[in-house]
Amino acid sequence: MIRTLPSRVDRREGGFRANYQANLAALKTLDEALAAAREGGGEKYNLRHVERGKLLPRQRVELLLDRDSHFLELCALAGHKTGGGVRTGASVIGGVGVVNGVECLINATESTLKGGAMNEYSVLKSRRLADIARENNLPSVNLVESAGADLPNQSKIFVPGGQSFRDLTRASQARQPTVCLVFGSSTAGGAYIPGMSDYVVMVQDAARVYLAGPPLVKMATGEDADDESLGGAAMHSKISGVSDYLARDEHDALRLGREIIGLLNHHKAGPGPSQPADAPLHDPDDLLGIASADVRVPFDAREVIARVVDGSRFHEFKPLYGPTLVCGWASVHGYPVGVLANQGVLFGEAAEKGAQFIQLCNQKHVPLLFLQHITGFIVGTRYEQQGIIKQGAKMINAVSNSTVPAITIMMGASYGAGNYAMCGRAYGPRFVFSWPNHRIAVMGGEQLAGVLDIVKRGASARSGKPVDEDQLAMMKMMLQQQIDKESTAWFATARLWDDGVIDPRDTRDVVGVALSTVHNAPVEGTTSWGVFRH
After folding, report:
1. How many Å apart are CA 59 and CA 107, to the nearest integer?
2. One-character DSSP codes across 48-100
3. Neighbour-count burial of 260, counting CB atoms closer than 10 A to its CB (0-12 exposed, 13-18 middle, 19+ buried)
4. Positive or negative, the Cα torsion across 172, 175, 176, 180?
5. What whole-number distance in Å separates Cα of residue 92 and Cα of residue 143?
6. Cα separations (Å) of 192 from 86, 151, 328, 445?
7. How far apart (Å, rounded) are the C-alpha atoms in residues 424 and 497?
8. Element containing residue 171 per DSSP (H, E)
9. Quick one: how far is CA 396 from the chain centroid?
10. H helical segments located in 108-213
11. Are 422 and 340 in contact (CB under 8 A)?
């Protein structure tokens, strides 16, 4: 039965208040990291860019978008604190936004930073953006002003970077139009972006597109060539044909880009919203107090669901069976979804329930929403003898072979095979977002240090040698510190293990935009699952 989820949250309770303050502090860290991503090349280079009569890259994106429409920025913290000269954001601004009424994948080079040169994280981010466009049948708009590869790091860029150009040509073959607006110098590898796009706009007296600039041409051939005759916007618009439209200035280029998108005759292949999109009955601000700052502490998944889904309405499936996995149907911003949310460690019954539920959602073509807070599957002799491996395998099989779009929210722990069963990155969800309290690893640092302790003591017993307690304590401490550092939301998002860290209070809207995006492609389930071991 469809019912309205109640809430038992007590805002005065000590645990709620402690979580709230800890999550507020984490959001401050998130705000600081996002501010770093928005800095571009910094005040000096931003000012120089503006003084040349150019719009800042984020201004270009804003002017391209429909007024008051949504823009879901993706992988905003790519490269964050990874070193090697990589700045937060990886020199690329990317996301899903509405252009002339059409949802598009937008990719803009950060031209105030090293002339828009690409590093290894830029390549990873651009490839992820291309995957999102491909999977969701989105037209792409590339706002280009790039010096190509960051040459001192070319060994990390050259081979994988070639996939970006392949992606452009394959998008065209798949009838997913690609539009390129060139605002400045776009050289070497940067020249292939307009060269392989379906539609190209170049800004007069600003765009420069060539495989080799005048100095390299002089060195290679002895020819003296100037910028305009070699690769200027007018030349490409009148002589070479690389440019399809010659824009008077940047604003004119953005106008032309919007017109091109409007003339694509693009229609969503999936169904539109079909349910009332009324707001939840319970305050999303409570999510900061509900989500455990310490991921070892469980919290009630239904309290989260009640603050994400339309009208807090939820039709729960098998509520009395496999209670550590909550499954049921709801809608978010009018789009039907099948929700799977962790309510503790996965037992065999929960895994089998999850597998059946995924099959049912595929049967009626309903997207999946995974709310992940999972330490893994239950372990121990009793559960191994009961077949936890084959029970868990059923759910992982279902996740692997499901064809309806999936969206995953990492709202706490994500450890071990629980990450796989709850549709982690490796299992192809259309989007993955994390809350700031998120932790991801094979297992927690404390548990891994404990395993090391047991293994080392066992080895010492077998060899007849005493345990060096000081050395073992140091090894355990170093290992735990390493795991704790490498399992944070910040470490994960910097390496594109997710598509961004979000404020938990924004979860409903982020999921809503993601659902709108996935419905640009057909939403079709499957009844083909291979072999389920019994």
Report:
1. 13
2. HHHHTTPPPHHHHHHHHSPTT--EEE-STTTTTT--TTPPTTTTEEEEEEEET
3. buried
4. positive
5. 10
6. 23, 17, 47, 45
7. 9
8. helix 158-173
9. 21
10. 120-135, 158-173, 189-195
11. yes
Nearest Cα residue to 73 out of 422, 514, 524? 514
Say how many C-beta atoms besides its own lie within 10 A of residue 494's C-beta: 22
Query: Where are the strands (E) in 346-416, listed by range?
Result: 368-374, 406-415
CA separation for the pair 111, 182 (Å, rounded): 11
Which of 249, 181, 169 has its CA nearest to residue 209? 181
DSSP 246-264: EESSHHHHHHHHHHHHHTS
Per DSSP, 75 falls in state S
Give the integer Cα–Cα distance in Å for 15 and 355. Answer: 33
Q: What does DSSP assign to residue 297? A: S
Q: How would you class 472 by CB atoms within 10 Å of its CB: exposed for 0-12, middle for 13-18, buried for 19 or more?
A: middle
- Please say whether the beta carbons of 125 and 161 come within 8 A: no
CA distance 345 to 450: 19
Inter-CA distances, 424 with 396, 413, 494, Å: 11, 12, 16
Dist. CA 74–CA 500, nearest whole Å: 6
pLDDT digits (tens, 9 = 90+) for 287-314: 999 999 998 899 999 999 999 999 999 9
| 143 in Cβ contact with 64 (< 8 Å) | yes
**Hey, which bits of 333-486 come out as E strands?**
335-342, 368-374, 406-415, 431-434, 439-441
Closest residue by Cα to residue 526 from 361, 331, 330: 361
Helices within 4-110 (DSSP H only): 14-38, 43-51, 57-64
Beta bridge partners, 397, equal: none
Considering only CA atoms, which of 307, 305, 320, 390 is closest in space to residue 355?
390
The verdict on pTM exceeding 0.90 is yes
What single-letter amino acid sits at 401? N
Q: What are phi and psi of 457, to 5 degrees?
A: -70, -35
* pLDDT tens readout for residues 222-280: 888 788 888 899 999 999 999 999 999 999 999 999 999 999 999 999 999 999 999 99
Q: Which two tokens stand for residue 146?
A: 């790039």
Q: Is the pLDDT of residue 416 over 70?
A: yes
Q: Does the pLDDT value for residue 162 go beyond 70?
A: no
Write down the residue that tokens 């010492």 correspond to. 460
Query: What are the tokens at 143?
Result: 């706002």
Report the SS3 class of residue 501.
Answer: strand
Q: At residue 446, what are phi and psi to the nearest 5 degrees?
A: -65, -40
Could you say which DSSP state residue 116 is in? G
Which tokens in the block code for residue 308?
């994400």
One-letter amino acid identity for 293? A
Tell me what the mean pLDDT of segment 172-178 comes to.
92
Q: Over the stretch 350-387, which tens digit does the pLDDT of each residue have?
A: 999 999 999 999 999 999 999 999 988 888 899 888 88
